[in-house]
Design a protein that fits this description.
The chain has 250 residues and is α+β, with helices and mostly antiparallel strands. The chain is built from nine helices and eight strands. A five-stranded antiparallel β-sheet has the order 3-2-1-5-4. The two termini are 15 Å apart.
Length: 250
């Protein structure tokens, strides 16, 4: 439940969503589809479509988080399909009910079945476009690598998993399980990690986000759990990093 709330918090408020909402509201209000151009004035159309589009975005984000929890571990396309389908099923009758409440005498405004079909079609196009953009961005990221990896001559395709202090040296663990030792300060090493997402969880430990299985209590203190079963202590100073990342609650 906490993971779901944190996911909603991270996804709901972004500049991209705000821009999409404003731009879509303006375009649809000018076009006035589904009979709204003939039945409603421009100010009312702006209010109507702004509210409808905002409602659809909030509902879609909620469904995204819900299905991510329910079908965790399944392919991304299945999550997308379930979100789009459930949004269309819920959104059509919801908007039709609103229409009949606000304009009970108007018969030209679109019915729930048409709204559901259009919602499903728009969802397919929107999610498909987003996945293509994400794929292109991921391909671009694969061509880049952290500067720290060049110091240890890591093979092509290797990613950072963990970096930690070892006296006056640091240990660099890569995604293939290789371990390298460098004469270097941890903070200088972290400054050379500019591709792999991660965070400092302790004054002596940096961990890649992809390598964090979860956070748990061990021997009376909070620790980060890694895929290999190893745990890393969480320093009080660095606890806010995990809270910001949605892995801990304040």
């Amino acid at each position: 439940m906490i993971e779901g709330i944190n996911a909603i918090r991270k996804e709901v408020v972004t500049r991209v969503h705000l821009v999409v909402w404003v731009a879509t509201t303006f375009i649809v209000s000018i076009a006035g589809p589904f009979g709204t151009y003939e039945e409603l004035t421009l100010p009312i159309r702006i209010s109507y479509w702004g509210g409808v589009i905002l409602l659809s975005m909030v509902l879609a984000l909620f469904l995204r988080v819900l299905w991510r929890i329910v079908i965790k571990g399944d392919p991304a396309w299945l999550e997308d399909l379930m979100v789009i389908s459930s949004l269309a099923i819920i959104f059509g009758p919801m908007v039709a009910t609103l229409n009949s409440t606000f304009w009970p005498t108007e018969t030209d405004l679109v019915g729930w079945a048409a709204i559901s079909v259009v919602t499903f079609a728009i969802g397919v196009v929107t999610v498909g476009s987003r996945r293509l953009i994400q794929r292109d961005v991921a391909n671009m990221d694969k061509s880049r690598r952290d500067r720290l990896l060049d110091r240890v001559e890591a093979p092509s395709g290797a990613r950072l998993a963990r970096v930690y202090s070892d006296n006056h040296h640091i240990r660099v663990i890569t995604s293939d399980g290789s371990e390298h030792r460098l004469l270097m300060r941890l903070r200088d090493a972290v400054a050379e990690i500019d591709v792999e997402p991660g965070l400092c969880v302790h004054r002596s430990h940096w961990v890649a986000t992809a390598s964090i299985v979860g956070v748990k209590q061990a021997e009376g203190r909070e620790v980060v759990e890694l895929p290999c079963g190893t745990t890393v202590p969480i320093g009080p100073k660095y606890r806010p990093n995990l809270i910001k990342a949605g892995m801990l609650t304040a």
